[in-house]
Amino acid sequence: MTRARQAGEAPAPEPYATEAICGRILERHRDTVSVRKAHVATANLARIIEAVLRLSSRQGFHETSLRDLAKASGLSMGGLYSYFDNKNTLLLMILTEVAQTAEAVLGNPPPGVAERPAAHLRWLIETHLRLTEAMQPWFVFAYMEAKGFPAPARRIATEGELATERMFAGVLERGAAEGVFAIEDVDLTASLIKPLLQDWYVKRAKYRKRGTTIERYVAGVTDFVESAILARPAQSPPGSADRDGRNPAAVP
Amino acid sequence: MTRARQAGEAPAPEPYATEAICGRILERHRDTVSVRKAHVATANLARIIEAVLRLSSRQGFHETSLRDLAKASGLSMGGLYSYFDNKNTLLLMILTEVAQTAEAVLGNPPPGVAERPAAHLRWLIETHLRLTEAMQPWFVFAYMEAKGFPAPARRIATEGELATERMFAGVLERGAAEGVFAIEDVDLTASLIKPLLQDWYVKRAKYRKRGTTIERYVAGVTDFVESAILARPAQSPPGSADRDGRNPAAVP
DNA sequence: GTCTATACCGGGATAGAC
DNA sequence: GTCTATCCCGGTATAGAC
Description:
In chain A, 64% of the residues lie in helices and 0% in strands. By secondary structure, chain A is an all-alpha fold. The first copy, chain A, binds a DNA duplex through helix 4. Chains A, B: Residues 42-102 form the HTH tetR-type domain.
């Protein structure tokens, strides 16, 4: 991801365009892709993956047949098999790429940010949302298709999940230690932030229909989270005061 | 759901046991189920659905074959078809039951609660979590399997989603009007609460592994949400003060 | 009411021509 | 490197015995 650019490589003005990402995938799978010329391989891989992401978003990956995929990508059945040895490998290519990208991007805050927990938290929220926006079909695919598949696929997705959750937990921990955050249970709070970020790409259609912009959403989540956890100087500690009596609603 | 109990009907101490729910499903599908005796029909339906929920949670619904389902439920291939006319109907049975139950339960707050927004919000959160806990496999199924299936199935799930979101929006609206909540954007806030509740059943395995109890989670979400939106008497309005400068992190 | 046996189709994967 | 033709399995659904 954040590797040094090779001499002669294209400047890649769009690091999250499908073609650019497929170039990186190719590097990781030189062995399973039998096509030698790099530029034709990336081009075709891009068409395949663009197609599989599109079809899967409607029908799911398993329900997407290789025949459909061949038609949609413009290749033939046999042609597909020079890019992966079986359907499951195609799944893994996408999942690992998503996981790697997320870890590389979120693990590299700009200089100075990581030292200030409040700023770091804010950066994590905004960067996460913008990354998943730029690679929306990829993240939706990873989220939706990870379950119910062979163990290795599951693990990749789950690990990625937990990795980013740990980043949040780390920031919250440091912020709480410095006294800028007031948090009772760091791990629980970290796991509550995660779904707020995932909602943006998982339910993208809903937000699009409502006309919610990403700027609005970033601001909304940031305010929501900060209101919940920022330490407030002149106020009683959370979880103690001014609550009206519990109303234990047993399920009827 | 909240119908009057028929004379002679069992007292049903467990309204969310699989058998009890399948009794209700049977009422709604007397036409497609060809087995006449009610008690044998509900018993078998329960075994079928218990099996399909279990298998689908691992492999997904589409990947679960009717052969597997027959083995797991103890019925034969042919036997299954006296309970539904095709696989898709089985899917719809489950989805509609989940949607109906959620709406019936969440739409009936105990007397006095609906009048006080703070109490109502708290009741909604706790009831939602406890309901989805009691029917966890059902809700996971509905959440996971709704996408990628024929339009009618999609609609049922989406409608259910929006219905509960509207309940939250309504409460927040009233609370804001009364001045007990300080909320900039009611609709956005309502849609942020939803994923916090869904996370409990979608990622149930994670929380189980960590030893997070439902009481802990209820308290955690309640505190988180209330800290975020409860109006604070002696404090500047949200979204204005004491934030360190924005740190607009463009995706690198 | 439930089972066994079977029809039939669409899926993934491969062989070999071009 | 890519395509066409084909194999074979496993899926849904049904027919007819018990």
